[in-house]
Amino acid sequence: MAAAEPSPVAPDLEAYGPVGRSAWLDVDWREHQRWVTVLGSPVNVVEMGSGDPIVFVHGLVGSWQNWLENIPHFARDHRVVALDLPGFGASPMPADKISIAGYARILDALLGELGIDAACVVGNSMGGFIAAELAIAFPQRVERLVLVSAAGISSQDMRDERGLAALRRVERLVTMYGGWIASRSEFVARRQRLRRAMLAIVFRHPERIPAPLVAEQLHGSGKPGFIDALDALTDYPIEDRLGKIGCPTLIVWGTDDRLVPLRDADRFAAAIPHARKLVYADTGHVSMLERPARFNADVDAFLADDAGARVGEESLGEAAQAEAERTGDDAARDAADAA
After folding, report:
1. CA separation (Å) from 62 to 3, 86, 220, 247, 327?
2. Residues near 230 by Cβ (< 8 Å), separated by ≥ 6?
3. CB–CB of 190/213 below 8 Å?
4. Angle at 210 between CA 55 and CA 200, to 5 degrees
5. Which of these, 8, 11, 7, lies nearest to 292 by C-alpha position?
6. What confidence score (pLDDT) does residue 91 get?
7. Which of 194, 232, 275, 312 could be a cystine partner for 249, CB 3.0 to 4.6 Å?
């Protein structure tokens, strides 16, 4: 008699960071990478799986690798597309000046090149800003929208003309320093003090993220689009147009986001008609990397149907409340109430 196969282990939905060996480590990503010409310029694209499409859009100083913990999961049932925005990752600078509206046009054109009429679009930080703009300017392209610590609201209050001018004066030095970090990403990732010093503003607990995953995130440093994109995301008001988003929208935030404040989640939720909000306790700016099992499950539920999404909210609220009781954290308690 053949031995029974062990049942698959359910993921720990409340774990911080990946648990066990991550699926992305066993993928030959060269088989899934290709160049797509978009509006006359090459864009680095990673594509995996088949089914209803999901498009992942990274943030400032990011790359497609920001979604490593999510792509293999969703590729089981979906056609997954992740890209390096022009000026970031492997994609060269765009022909025109970087702007949020310009990035939305690039996404629209990319979907056209890929033969995708409409998709669920998931964006983090600046990528969420771009995804929201896509849903406003090209509503036929976005069936569902997921905003993960999206920029676009308080970022308008952070604009600093003198600071931008100073950055432009040392732009080459900034790029060189970022390139130095990228070239030594594995060294930085293996040293916890250095990792914490560099990533504490992004991750709530950078020391609890596996070194290989950290190294992949650092590869995005030192790219030429940084200053122009920073300029663009602090100079393009969107809040008064969010009411034009007509698709179901999921807003995901961390209680300890040090880059985009939690109050912005409330403002997005209030402004977008079909939005629901999930708040993760003890989590920073990149929920999809810090809480990958929880994030993947919540997006699965959101994609399935409204009832499934409500179940996700309910379970998250219970988890956040448990975290609040465990830590005595007022922010976590507020997250539980919000969820």
Report:
1. 46, 11, 5, 26, 31
2. 60, 164, 167
3. no
4. 85
5. 11
6. 97
7. 275
Q: What is the dihedral of CA 101, 102, 105, 111, to 10 degrees?
A: -120
8 Å CB contact between 90 and 24: no
Calculate the average pLDDT of the chain. 84
Q: What is the CATH number of domain 23-338?
A: 3.40.50.1820
Count of positions (residues) in the chain: 339
Listed in order, strand segments (DSSP E) in 160-290 are 249-254, 275-280
What value does the mean pLDDT take over residues 10-34?
93
Annotate 208-229 with DSSP letters as a single string: GS-HHHHHHHHTT-S-TTHHHH
- In angstroms, rounded to a whole number, what is the distance separating the alpha carbons of residues 124 and 147? 6
What pLDDT is stored for residue 3 in this prediction? 46
Q: For the chain, how many helices (H) and strands (E)?
A: 14, 8
Q: Note the pLDDT of residue 11.
A: 74
pLDDT, greater one: 54 or 339: 54
Q: How far apart are CA 73 and CA 29, in angstroms?
A: 15
Residue 151 has pLDDT above 70, yes or no: yes
For the record, the structure tokens of 195 come out as 């990792």
**From the centroid of its chain, how far is CA 86?**
16
pLDDT of residue 189: 64
How high is the pLDDT of residue 331?
46
Strands 41-48 and 33-38, sheet pairing? antiparallel
Report which of 157, 41, 179 is spatially closest to residue 97, judged by C-alpha positions.
41
